[in-house]
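PT: before anyone asks, these are the final sequences, not the draft ones from last week. 636 residues across everything. Please model them as a single complex and drop the result in this thread when it's through.
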Amino acid sequence: MSTTVGQTTPGTTPPAQREVVRVSVPKRSINSELRAIKIVWLREVIRYRSDRLRMLTTLVQPLLFLFVLGSGLQSLASAGTHGVNLKTFIYPGILCIVVLFTAMFSAASIVWDREFGFLREMMVAPVRRSSIVIGKCLGGATVAGLQGVIVICLAGVVHVPYNAVMIIEVFLLQLLLAFTITAFGVMIAVRIKQMQSFMGVMQMIVTPMFFISGALFPANGLPGWLTVLNRLDPLTYAVDPMRRIVFSHLHISALAKHALNPGVTWWGWHVPTLVEVAMVAALGLAMLAVAIWEFSATD
Amino acid sequence: MSLTDANGAGAPAIAVRDLVKTFGEVRAVRGVNFEVPMGEVFGFLGPNGAGKTTTINMLCTLAKPTSGEAWVAGHDVVRERDDVRRNIGLVFQDPTLDGYLTAEQNLKLHAELYGVQSNLVRPRMQQVMEMVGLWDRKDSVVATFSGGMRRRLEIARGLMHSPRVLFLDEPTIGLDPQTRRSIWDYIRELKEREEITIFMTTHYMDEAEWCDRIAIMDHGEIVALDSPEALKGGVGKDRVTIQTDDNEAAIAALARQFGIEAQVSEGAVAFGVPAGEQFVPQLFAEFELPIRSVSVSRPTLDDVFMSYTGSTIRDAEEDSSKHRNRVMMQMMSGGRR
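LR: through. Structure below.
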């Protein structure tokens, strides 16, 4: 049937002569919500695929930090890195911030959608608002995860071996972080009506979050105020496990490992990786809940 | 409370009772009542700011009424919001397409959000896109479409899930006359082919003529509601325009001889009389001044609007925009929150 329909040349059949295809909209069900989630997710992925420029622009900053800062500060830092290349040290942080930037960008699309009116099309559909938010967050997570893969591919360039287990672990952690950040971004974006404001808020929140997280420095032996800020920064708990994963596959001296990958401590207690990851996940779910609640409350 | 059974069969497409919407001190809609039977093309006519869009938003479940009730396709717009949404199609005044997606992707997205049966998505999509003449452009990205094409695509999208009531908020605003005409061709074709009720707002008088019935809205109230013919008939007067050498003298003479109050309009003398064609021979026979030309026209909806509101629709718009500007100025100067 679909082939005959497809072959009909437009204009050859007078429309009035063909039978009207009548469809009906079913009552809400789990199935219809899942379809809604899937299509909102798919829209994000389609838009990402068609926007090559965005693929590039969200990579620029992370790559600048990795290669320019990494190479530029190499000579200054060499005394403290115990022979490890600074780029290798920064690399886990970059794996996180590429996800951070992309996910925030994905969340921003809610603001765009509002400005360009598309949000209304989704708001009046007979589906739960939560389905739209979940679809959005999964979409943002997927897109950010795909950007993350590009950075994973660069591992060899910064002297990190391509180990299958490491790659899978890194990718899963990136997906989780991407989901949490998108939920965070959506939570903020729902309240904001203009793109300029969102960009401003992003600058105000994302940049400090990234700088404080320890993506560019080890999280021990810091001044007291910075230690406090670092431990409060949620991104810290993604950067630290990321570094643990990457460093566990490096062939470097124990001294270097100790200096560069000290791990996050709370009053001397070494926070286990699992707790860190659980925190990121819990935070993501909590922010998703807030985003859904906010989104349902708007007209 | 539904008006009839769960499917809403037999109920009017739209029923509205004492509907009120206020925004702070502004009473946008002041208690409107009307019913639209199934299958009708019903027009809401009025200047910008008359409360048309606010009313449509309440009917589409996008705004909650301050008081009063409304049913669409047999469902209460507040208590059965979802049921209303499943049964209506919407074309907004402002575009709501995703410009990054193709036309087909936009429609597909809509079908998925509305849960249209998967095997029917494709044939239905072809049908609605052929109706608006965009099937051959289905793979084009919407960002490349002209304003008219986008509006047509929005109409197609609004029809994608076979709604029982299609709401069109100013469907032809900002379009050139030719495109407006083609949009109306689609709307009329649609009415012939689908069992659908069309509810639309417009501030173009000539377009309102195409509706089965129109409600004239002004300052949040419905001031008249009938078929365009009946409304024009209700005005009761034809419009006669004469060209003379001396307009002032002609107006004075008309008043003296026939007791007619005439005005100068676009350089000619214009006045209203019942049965204009019969008056013209009498005018030629008895009028004391030379007449260079004469024209008689049936009342238009402009005249109808004028007779119910005391101003032309353009004047009414200027007034309301002045009012809006004043309110804005007050808000900005801190006079009002």
